[in-house]
Amino acid sequence: MSVTSPVSTTAVRATGIWKVFNEGQSNEVTALQDIDLTVEAGEFISLIGPSGCGKSTLLRVIADLTHPTKGVAEVAGMSAADARQQQKYGMAFQQAALFDWRTVRRNVELPLELQGWSKSSRAARAMELLEMVQLADFANHRPWELSGGMQQRVAIARSLAVDPPLLLMDEPFGALDEMTRERMQNELLRIRQETGKSVIFVTHSIPEAVYLSDRVVVMSPRPGRITDIIDVNLGSRDEDTREAEAFFAAVTAVREALRGRTSGSAARARVGEV
Amino acid sequence: MSDSQRVALQSVPGRPVRSRAAGRRLKRGAASAGWALLGILLAMIMWELVKAVGSVVPFPFNTSDTTMPNVWTMVNGAFQPEMRGSSTTVLQAVMMAAGYSLMIAMGGFIIGVSVGLLLAITMQRFAFMERGLLPFVIASQTVPLIALAPLIVGIGNRFSVGPFEWSTTYSVMFIAAYLAFFPLSVGALRGLHAPTPTSLELMRSYAAKPRQLLFKLRFPSSIPFLVPALKVSAASAVVGTVIAEISTGVRGGIGRLIIEYSREITGQPAKVYVAVFGAIILGLMAAALVTVIDLYLTRNLPKEGPA
Q1: In angstroms, rounded to a whole number, what is the distance separating the alpha carbons of residues B97 and B77?
Q2: Residue of A nearest to B200 (CA)
Q3: Backbone angle region of A160, left / alpha / beta, with phi > 0 → left and psi within -120 to 50 → alpha
Q4: pLDDT at residue A261, as a whole number
Q5: 3-class SS of residue B70
Q6: In terms of Cα–Cα distance, which of B74, B75, B96 is closest to B86?
């Protein structure tokens, strides 16, 4: 696991990332402006900000799904491109993007199949993961027979298939109802506890970011940049956390940071006081 | 497993769902067969009705027995010898011709589908190919078949590679393929472009190779587009075969038979109708073939409506 890896204890290091769309044209957009971000191994980071602040673009740069105009993204101590080739991260999106023509189990097997795993070993691995997301009973069902929350759990199992040290999640619970969403958050925290993965989680929801994260990275649009990073020290989470004073204080701190009122250090101080 | 064992297995309490579903499917199949028979019966009654009314009231078209023979005349005509003193009946001759044409149409269909698929894959893979090729693919269908047929026969007749000698039958197959490839290549191209941006990014995040992307995502995603394209292609192959048989004068197929029998319409009007029904059956058999392919390709996809 990456925690004990001698190469690096840094999961992600982004340095001086710029992303400019339609460069030199009249509709030029600076989606990312001079982003520096370091994620330690085992850390859970949320990227939050209004639409158009570049949080998804930043995630894509780290995933090597798009190239930065300037700057360097490193994952697990190697270039983002090498990290993608060597499957050093798993990805989940807002749409579960399960393949209708495959059973649930064979959807989880997909990344293993692409890596050339043998039939029996990938089936065993897929069942292990489905057990982890508590969907072993649905292994032979088709994705369309599952609810939205169940589909997302399959997608998470799939993103864990090759056992990557890092999970990149782009609003994975964005399309779920509030109750399902909270259950999924607990589920994700449990899985992360069990596996020790580092996570970068893109979200619109302030309570979600606070509940899940060790640090909340606040971004602002036009041009997309990091305006604040807020440490959240809530210890181990459970249902009571959602009603704790410290939780509300952190939510307030993030909200004010999003409005651009309070500086990060002041917000941190207040979270600490409670 | 013997049949009785299979029946026994299906009636075990643990697996009632499957047998009930099978029963429902059987019932639905019987119902649609019943409707089809009723439709044929209605068509026959309409035919006779038009004839009966036409014999009393003057119609703007000819309802006499030479142009619109009675249903029973047609049925009777089907079992007459094809020619005086010949041992085969009209029906047998028509069935043999339809079978021959079906073979040619299937050959054309297979070639057309293969070429269409290859074209679609190439066009999808290379954007410049799509820009360059697609206009030609579309233009290919604007060439009148009647003009094309003698050209292909003329060019083909000079063609031989080693022991392979071109025959006019291949020209017919070529024309069938020429008509069949178009709907397939256009449909398949749309289908190969069908995967959502998210699934494409997912595959990219897995560092999938182009071949894996094609077989594990693009091809399965294209099936909902491919199935209707296959249906149109099969119909085109049949129509292409019949028309090409007529315009090239190839013997043995249903197209030629329709031309020959239509010359005898004054003497034996039933014959040409039997040949036309032969062509219809040919079309239905092609449709049935595609339905089998359809059921196989879509076996893992969500069914529309309750299954």
Answers
A1: 17
A2: A97
A3: alpha
A4: 62
A5: coil
A6: B96
Backbone angles phi, psi at A16, to 5 degrees: 55, 45
Domain ranges of chain A: 2-88+164-273, 94-163
Q: B302–A144: do the CB atoms touch at under 8 Å?
A: yes
B208 interaction partners in chain A (CB closer than 8 Å): 114
Of the candidates B196, B212, B223, the beta carbon closest to that of A97 is on B196
Given a contact cutoff of 8 angstroms between Cβ atoms, the answer to whether A223 and A30 are in contact is yes
Measured between beta carbons, the chain A residues lying within 8 angstroms of B197 are none
Write the class of the CATH domain B90-297.
mainly alpha
- C-alpha B146: how far from chain center: 21
A102 φ, ψ to 5°? -115, 150
Best CA proximity match to A267, nearest among A202, A210, A200: A210
CA diameter of chain A = 56
CATH 3.40.50.300 assigned to domain A2-88+164-273? The reply is yes
CA B185/CA B297 separation, integer angstroms = 17
| Whether B300 and A87 lie within 8 Å, measured CB to CB | no
Residues A31 and A43 sit within 8 Å (Cβ to Cβ) = no
ipTM: 0.87
What residues contact A273, with CB distance under 8 A and at least 6 apart? A249
Over residues B69-93, mean pLDDT: 86
Q: What is the pTM of this model?
A: 0.81
Chain B residue numbers with beta carbons less than 8 Å from the beta carbon of A99 are 199, 216-217, 220
Pairwise CA distance, residues B193 & A267, whole Å: 48
Please give the pLDDT value at position A6.
46
